[in-house]
Design a protein that fits this description.
Elements: E1 2-5, E2 9-12, H1 26-40, E3 45-50, H2 55-63, E4 67-69, E5 85-89
Length: about 90
């Protein structure tokens, strides 16, 4: 899901692929679709929060061009506490 924030910034939130469907490229297609949708809506920046325990997801986001960032770069002040890895795509 892509959620809009102020200033043409979007968030990728609650993305998951069922365990039985993993390994088929579905996650990659979802990330690509989220990026394309944010751009189509005029987005200039996309961010997400994840957890370091989710190494395959982090790798997927990095392959899509996301880089790690810091909490102070996020457009929301009270971002998810359980997200210990923050990423953005400009």
């Amino acid at each position: 899901m892509v959620e809009a924030c102020p200033d043409a910034v979007f968030e990728v939130a609650k993305m998951a692929v069922a365990p039985a469907a993993q390994g088929r490229g579905i996650g990659r297609r979802l990330v690509t679709a989220a990026i394309d949708r944010a751009r189509a809506l005029g987005g200039t920046r996309l961010f997400l929060g994840s957890n370091s325990k989710l190494a395959p997801a982090l790798h997927l986001y990095e392959q899509a061009g996301s880089v790690r960032t810091t909490r102070d770069r996020l457009p929301v002040a009270d971002y998810y506490a359980r997200a210990d890895v923050l990423m953005e795509l400009v």
